[in-house]
Amino acid sequence: MSTFDTRNRPVVRDTHNKPFNTLDGGHDTKPDITISRPGFPTNSNSKLTKWAQAGTVIELKWTTDIFDADGVHDSKESRAALVQLGKSARSLLMASGGCHVYVVACFKKGMARILRFDRAGFRATHPFNWLDKTSDVFPTFFYRLYNPNGHPSCMDGDDYTIQRPTQSEKKLVYAALCKHDDYAKRYPTIEEAATDLEHSRRITAVRFVTEDNKRVPKLVDCFTIGSDISYKDGLFGRATRVYRVILREDFEKEKPTIYVLKDAWRQTCRRPELDFYDAIAAHCKANEINMDKEGMAQCRGSVDLSADDVPPGATWVPALHLTRSSKDGPEFERRHTRTLLTPVGTPLKSFTSTKSLAKALSRVVSHHKIAHDAGVLHRDISDSNLLFEEAVDGTQEAFLVDWDYAEFTEDGLRLFHEAFPERAKQTELYQSIDKSLKDFTGTLPFVAIKMIQNMDENVTKETPHAAEHDLESVYWLLVWMILRYTLHGRKEGDKACSNLFDTPRIDSKVSWIQQEEHFPSAEGPVFRLAEELSRRVWDQNRPSWLGAETLTHTKVLEIFERHLEADDWPTDDAARPFRLPSGNPIKESLQRQVVKRESAKRSHPSYDDDDEAFPLDASTSSHGTTAVSSGSDGPSASKKRKLGKRKGQ
After folding, report:
1. Whole-prediction pTM
2. FRET label pair with 582: which of 205, 279, 373, 526, CA 20 to 30 Å apart?
3. Could you report the per-residue pLDDT of 393-450, keeping only the tens digit for each?
4. Residues with Cβ < 8 Å from 570, sequence gap 6 or more?
5. What count of Cα atoms within 13 Å lies in the side-chain half-sphere of residue 619?
């Protein structure tokens, strides 16, 4: 590498005893050999100990190869070696924000493999003897890695649609923020904005504009403001990052708009989130529903960076933004997408009173009903997908967001094709509705009981996901928020929430709804609301011979409206800080990992998740938060607990 141009030349350091700080709160790691990104100081005193400085790493083993002679990694040693490489790859992806990265494994004193990791999996070369004088693999590989052909990146795999803004651009960003009521108060001086501006990024995205009565995509520069709103960066999965951004073209506006920019890698077989936003917007327009007045999330622009039909003026290489590592076929490769949304949200756990919380949940039922009338099912009601709109005056108006795992109903797909006939042909690319609605989808603590029962290996006829299951998720979300952020009075205290939700089985939920009273020592409208909803959830899940009654939007909204009219809502019961239950943190952490793995056992490749650090199966994700698994091939669960009579009935 000494012959490389100085602009592209890295340095190589022995770092086997140098801890690299973790990027996600886990353990520090010590890569054996670290090769820097270009531009790192060649001074021998310069410390190479940060992942943002690293371009690639080499891990050394005396004998252990990640694969055995049959091409599998079943031994304890080979799996441990692969996990180590995967952790380094994840850190490199997190630090660089790139599309793919490379790591190297050296073993048996002369053999090596090069591994390429992206968001769908990894590929590895056959072992080669890098000490063989005739071998040119390493020279060729490192030259191509640091001298990428066809695009202006520093390294192969870099996403050059993300750049650091210039100092003059940062000043323009600050001047624009000063014209915004909320952000002018946040940053009264440029010095107070310095930290957030220092970490700002300029990201290429698309905003929709109307020309000749048609919607057309227009390239825009988005400048991030402050820290990321959301950062879920598993090795394999959607790797969703959500930014708060301002657009360059809005700098001169009297009052610029602050947008949300969502960056994610979706599976090819999954319908773009844009389709669901468009279907809902078309329904609202046809039925004269004012989405702004309703406070609904709206898509302002979207782009698939891997698509061949790039917007006018685009300079990126689409192939860079399409993974090529899925072992399950091209339909499970991932496509890099960016979606521009409004409004900007704040977490549900920031509620200023329990009445604000109840109103938020009522609002999400209203938004869900509008979407369902449009033929769209959300399928992932959770604490991260229900947000409060940022507001200068402190008001808390909630909205439902994140339609990644939504699906059309049969009527919804028909209406969508009528509204957007040019997209009808694309439907054959995506998973069928019948199959998709039987997928296990959602954030596990909030998933409806019958959906969890679908995971039972003894179930021969799965229940398709329907509106009533999302409505049940609203109830579990309310219970979650009560147990974590209010004085609920249950004797388990801080452990009440984990006791109910930290399990992939339905037993705890079934036992919960069979109880007559859940908050016997707590008083107030929010607890009365929860008790009534609990009875309705019980009605939905009891056996048919006891007269099961399905939840409906009308029924649930009526319950919320009646309780919200109560005159004894307190005004001083804002969310309390949640404290993790005390105990042995290492033991509890291991227990949580076991629970999450158990919840995600599956064999179908459509399982998809954001939060996995590094799964043992090296081509798909296996964590227990937002999960998708298909039908009878989905996660295995305990035997179904029979739903008998509710206690006291």
Report:
1. 0.88
2. 526
3. 788 999 999 999 999 999 999 999 999 999 988 888 888 888 888 888 888 899 999 9
4. 353, 354, 355, 524
5. 18
